[in-house]
Amino acid sequence: MADSSIDWEAIERSPDFRALVASRRRFVLLWGGGGVGLCAAFVVISYLAPDVLGEALGWVVGVALIVITWAVSFAYLRKSDAEWAPMEERVVASVHEPSGRFERAGERERVS
Amino acid sequence: MNELALAIFAVVLAITLGVTYWASKRTSTATEFWAAGRGISGAQNGFAIAGDYMSASSFLGFAGLIFFFGLDGFIGLVAALVAFVPVLVLLAERMRNAGKFTMADVLAFRLKERPARLAAALGTLSVAFFYLLAQMVGAGVVIQALAGIDFAWSVILTGTFMVVYVIFGGMLATTWVQIIKAGLLMTAGVVITVLVLAKTGFDLFSQATSQHAEGDAFLSPGLMHPDAINGISFGLAFLLGTAGLPHILIRFFTVPDARAARRSVGWAVLLIGLFYIMIMVIGVGARAILGSGAEEASAGGNLAIPLLVEELGGGAGTVGGDVFLAVVSAIAFATILAVVAGLVISASGAMAHDLWSNVVRRGEADEREEVRVARVAALGLGVLAIGVSIAAGEGFNVSILVGLAFAVAASANLPALLCALFWPRFNTAGAVTGVLGGLAASLILIALSPAVWPGPDGEGSPVPLSNPALFSFPIGFACCWLGTVLSREGRAERSYHELHVRAETGIGAY
Questions:
Q1: How many domains does chain B have?
Q2: What is the per-residue pLDDT across B487-509, written as a single tens digit (0 to 9) for each?
Q3: Helices B71-82 & A33-48, crossing angle to 10 degrees?
Q4: pLDDT tens across B230-272, in order?
Q5: Within a 13 Å sphere around the CA of B351, how many CA atoms are in the beta-carbon half?
Q6: Does a structural domain hold residue B407?
Q7: Chain A partners within 8 Å of B504 (Cβ)
Q8: Domain range holding B9?
Q9: Does residue B479 carry a pLDDT above 60?
Q10: What values do phi and psi take at A6, rounded to 5?
Q11: B90 with A62: Cβ contact below 8 A
Q12: Would residue A100 count as lying in a domain?
């Protein structure tokens, strides 16, 4: 069901929400993109320049990528609990705050 | 026949039936049937994801590829683990926040309900079908080789139990079958790894290269994929396909909230990563211990682990060898059962919740009807999968089917899902062309590849690719973009703004 009593665009524009999205996006682009990018580079280099990963280096890099995956996941979970969860709670709390800042004046967009 | 293996199979089946009976008492509503009442904890779901993801292809297939080709096999495993990074940072919480039972819920959230669901359901069913076929054929081959049960009966046995778990126990039974299997598989991995290292010591890599005809090439890339393009495409299919696998994505609906969803991925990467490192040791150890003499007996590598444990237990014909072989066979069987059950329940959601309830009945069906249709769909899918697997037969190349499933997941499902979540302008036409374009691209490229055209390993095929992901994934994205920019669309019931806020914060989550 579309909840047309909530002004979603106003929430999207609110400083709390924008700060949350920006902070999470920074992490995702840097660390998530970095992890996937390293793995893609590993795959591409393995086959385009196999000599680079000769002498058993490929196995070391592979295990290192598994450890990197653990580290990125752990960092994401830590940051989620410590930073983003409280930011989410602030946004959620503000939606129902008495000022009515995110409530729509009328149900102008209901489409049946 | 191997009586001991059969006895252990029977114990595994009895335990899973007990779980199913217990779960059936707790499964009646749609939320219970597809999402286990959203009562699975983060850690439990992490084990279940590991059990859902580590198929026979991880356990037997990749160990065999490492046994045969060395590093090339390990590269695929690493890609299959790193694939969970995008699942964690892009999808896990957002799926939980914005979806209800199926991947299509998220895709159709802000698009026109019926066409978007139709397309998404098609993507889900295609992936589930190819993956199911791969696992069932694999089950038939492995059980036949290990326990001496005829191929067709092995497939029927697997298919029957998978349908029983899903129909009676729904997602709760499926989840616990997956958790138990993950525990069994991890335990087996630790035991085999320790035994391998006890036998070889820590210089197993140099022992392995001395046992390989190609010597040091075993340690470098290229033995399996002399063609760079094929190697890259194979790796990318695993790196990108995971985030489009419907049976993995629906696991996030079984936990109470986004926090549990992200924690479950943390558990899953820990378990799967450990297991993959063990598979590396086991695959290299198999080469060091069994040597090149075992290549033919390993049936393309799939039986490298069974041969290895038989050797570690004391050799063929000894009591220890027989016991080890029987236990590993039963675990391989449990592994396949847990994966196929997950596939069937995801496909039943696409058929009942997406196609029946929302496309055919336009949202008029109540929950009881939805679950009834889901059970019928599960039965139908089971019968179909059994029939096609037996008809396709053992000659069907299992790894082609798994690669196809990952390629379709990466090309048809993932681009549309990411666009729906992150691209404000994305619209229904973009979703439909994206799913259909990605699906068509991957299927056509596979059909024209050497594996299929004009018959397995035929020469003169128009497309030299063994896996299409390198090309079909960008085609899928291009189709999403093209469909969107070439069409004009009125406002949907729910805006991107609503999806965006809900996906990021969990407001209004089911």
A1: 1
A2: 987 767 688 999 999 999 999 88
A3: 160
A4: 899 989 999 999 999 999 999 999 999 999 999 999 999 999 9
A5: 21
A6: no
A7: 17, 20-21, 24, 88
A8: 3-393
A9: yes
A10: -110, 135
A11: no
A12: no
Question: How many beta-carbon pairs below 8 A join chains A and B?
Answer: 161
Q: Show Cβ contacts of residue B168 under 8 Å, excluding neighbours closer than 6 positions.
A: B20, B21, B23, B24, B27
- Does the beta-carbon distance from A58 to B219 stay under 8 Å? yes
Tokens of B256: 């109470």
Which alpha helices (DSSP H) does A32-97 contain, by range? 33-48, 57-79, 85-95
Of A2, A46, A62, the CB nearest to B231: A46
Contact B20, B164 (CB under 8 A): yes
Within-domain flag for A48? yes
Rounded Cα gap, residues B3 and B326, in angstroms: 9
Q: How far is CA B199 from CA B212, B281, B476, in A?
A: 18, 12, 48
Q: Has residue A21 been placed in a domain? A: yes
pLDDT, averaged per 10 consecutive residues of chain A (112 residues), comes to 74 94 96 96 92 84 97 97 95 77 54 36
Complex ipTM: 0.93
Beta strands in B152-306 (DSSP E): none
| pTM of the predicted protein model | 0.93
Burial call B400-418: b when 16+ CB within 10 Å, e when fewer: bbbbbbbbbbbbbbbbbbb
> Looking at the 3D structure of chain A, how many domains does it have?
1
Residue B367 is assigned to a structural domain of this protein: yes
In-domain check, residue B485: no
Which residue range is the domain that position A16 belongs to? 8-95
User: Is A18 among the domain residues?
Assistant: yes
B300 touches A at CB < 8 Å: no
d(CA A17, CA B469): 36
